[in-house]
Amino acid sequence: MKKCIALFALLLVLFPVFAGGSGEEDVVVRIFQQKIEIHDALVAAAEAFNATHEGITVEVESSGDDYLTILKGQFAAGDGPAIFQSNGYNDMALFRDYLVDLSDEDWAQYLTDVARETGSLDGKVYGFPLSTECTAICYRSDVFDKFGLEVPRTRSEYFALLDFLMENGYPDGVISDGFNTWYQAGMFTFSTAIARQDDPLAFIEGLNNGTEKIIGNEKFIELGEWVKDEFKRSLNPLSIDFNAQTAAFTSGNAPLVIGGSWLQPTCDAVDEDMDLGMFSYPFTEDAEENDYLYTYIGPLWHINSEAGEAEIAAAKEFINWLVYDETGLQYLTSEMKTIPGLTNVTPDFEAIGTLGQILYEYIAAGKTKGTYNAMYPNGTGDAIAFGDAICACAAGRVTVDEFLAEAQRIWDSAQ
To answer: What is the dihedral of CA 259, 264, 265, 269, to 10 degrees?
Structure first.
């Protein structure tokens, strides 16, 4: 009888081994992110991390324009991801109840100024700055070289260049800039008028308390006039979507595109030797005033405070692996082709390509302005309405004054 009891006890001890290991399931860290262009590289990074971190499995899910709606649905259902993203500021504040304080993480001491400002609430750091990016005008430098064209530095030079190209091989439109969808117009184009204020944050505060107005504001008037002139020279502006917009550029059907540093991987996928250039929006006749790139952290990563303790620890470990492990850093800078918002991380200049190098030069020279879509009253949730208003102005459905009045109404009604 004693032998039977002893044997039974031994079986209880060994059963987990027979069942396939320790009996403990892996800690699963689910990342839900919107940066489609890094999806494959991020999946590869997760697989490399999983292979060297027993007991942790990092999974990656990505979604495009409907990201925010899906994310809110996941949190509402009690199924929020371990790592999720936002654009910071008010956009991040929407998820205040789900944010883990990351102030004590080692990398937090190396945040760039824009990363710290974008990813902090009440003096605490809640966001990991995966990448610094910009919105700008990208162009095919081989086309410029063919015609001996210089990069335009003023508004009149810019539109004269577009007119020249339309008369010399691109009669249907020379720049790929869609005005049939809200995303680019609302997220980035509208924000440039805020960034060009003398003090953008004070201007936003003034809009919120009623001491500042969009109506009659010089920068917004210039923006309205700009998009109308841009529309006239755009390729299929009322029918082109985002994918077709970039495809028109990479195929050479349009030698310019409203894009940014983030466009480099898309271009590389078509032709790694594509001749590219990038310049900022010349909104005015003042070349010096125009010579700034509109930068943002794209995106901030957050850790879900409602995840389990082990899950939170594993999520932190994965982020630290990206920053401090040689293999992880290789994936972060070379495979994902990012410029992290950290002063202790040097980008892979070959990987980030021409567009990334131009951005880095502007950052180093201090010639950048911010992007403030996440400081709309409801964060980027208001971008749809602002984008629709810009598209209506560009297409001539409303005047510039009517555009400003509609933008003012949207801002005020969102308070």
So the answer is: 100
